[in-house]
Amino acid sequence: MGEVKRANGTIAIQSETVMADIVDTHKDAAPPAESAERRPLPRWAITTISVCAALALWEIFGRNINPIFGSYPSAIAAAFWELLISGQLGTALSSSLQPFVAGYGLAIVVGVPLGLVIGRFRIAEAALGIYVTAGYAMPLVALVPLLMLWLGLGFAVKVAVVFLMSLFPIVINTWLGVTAVPKTLIEVGKSFVASDLVILRRIILPATLPYIMAGIRLAVGRAVVAMVIAEFFTTISGLGAVIINSANNFDTATMFVPIIILMVMAIGLNSLIGVVERWVAPWQAEISGRDRE
C-alpha cells in the first residue's frame, strides 16, 4: 500500500508539473496571437499601390502602341506640361468649370427639397413622381438640340444640360431615403404635436442624409459627362474643345490630358462629398464601421 501511495504521489506531482508546463507554454504562445492581430493596410496605401502598378503597366505596354492609336503616361505628362505653360489648359478648365458648378449646384438646391417633398407628401408623390421617374429614364442627350433652340449656344444651355442630367439622381435618392425612414420616428414627432414642417426638418432630413449624399455622389459623374456633352454639341470650348482639336490632329497624348483631368476631378469631388458626409452625418460612419478604417 505504501508503494501505491508513493506511486500515486509521484503521478500527482508529475501531472502538476505537466499542467504547469502547459500553462507556461500557453503564456509563451500568447504574444504571437496578439501580434497576429495587426492593423490592416490603410486604404490610401492600397489605392496608391494600385495606381502605381496600373501606371507602370501602362507605361511599359503603351510604348509599343502606335502613337496615333494610344499613348502612355510620360507622353501624357509632357503634353500636360505644354498645355499648362501655354495657358491653354487653365483657360479651358475655367471655361468648363463655370457651367459645371452652376448646373451641379442648382441641381442640389432644387433636387434635395423636391425629393423631400415627393417622399413625404402622398399628393406630391402621385403628382410629380411619375415625371421624375420618366426624366431619369429618358436619354437627356436627345434634348440638347431642343435646349439649343430655346437657350442658344452659350453659357445658359450648358448649365441647363448639366442641371438636367444631375438633377434626377439627387431627387430619386432623396425620395427613396424619405420612404425608408421608420414610421415610429414620425409617430414620435406627432406624439409631441410637431408640425409637418418640423417633422420634415428635425426627423426626416437627418435620417435621409446618407441617401441624399449618395444621390449627390451619383450626380457628380453625370454632371461631368453632361459638361463635356454640352461642350461637344454647343459652342466647342473648354476641355471638350481640347479633346476634339487634339483628336482631329491625331495628337493622342494631348487628347488624354483633359480626359484624365476630368477623371481626377470626379474622384476629388467624390472625396470632398465623403468629407462633407462625415461632417453632417457622423453617426453613419459609426454605424457602418467606417470610422475604424
What does this protein look like?
The protein contains twelve helices and no strands. It is mainly alpha-helical. The protein has a domain at 90-282: MetI-like (MetI-like fold), CATH 1.10.3720.10. It is globular, with a radius of gyration of 30 Å.
Fold topology:
Elements: H1 2-36, H2 43-62, H3 73-86, H4 88-120, H5 122-137, H6 144-151, H7 155-179, H8 183-191, H9 196-233, H10 238-248, H11 252-280, H12 282-288
Quick structural overview:
With 293 residues, this protein is mainly α.
Q: Indicate the CATH class of the domain at 90-282.
A: Mainly Alpha
Q: In terms of per-residue confidence, which ranges show pLDDT below 50 for 5 or more consecutive residues?
A: 1-16, 25-30
Major sheet details: none
Radius of gyration (Å) = 30 Å
CATH architecture assignment of the domain at 90-282 = Orthogonal Bundle
Compute the number of helices. Answer: 12
Assembly annotation: single chain
> Can you tell me the CATH superfamily of the domain at 90-282?
MetI-like
Structure class:
mainly alpha
Strand content: under 5%
Instruction: Please name the CATH topology of the domain at 90-282.
Output: MetI-like fold
Mean pLDDT: 82
Tally of extended strands?
0
Envelope shape: globular
Question: For the terminal residues, how far apart are their CA atoms?
Answer: 67 Å
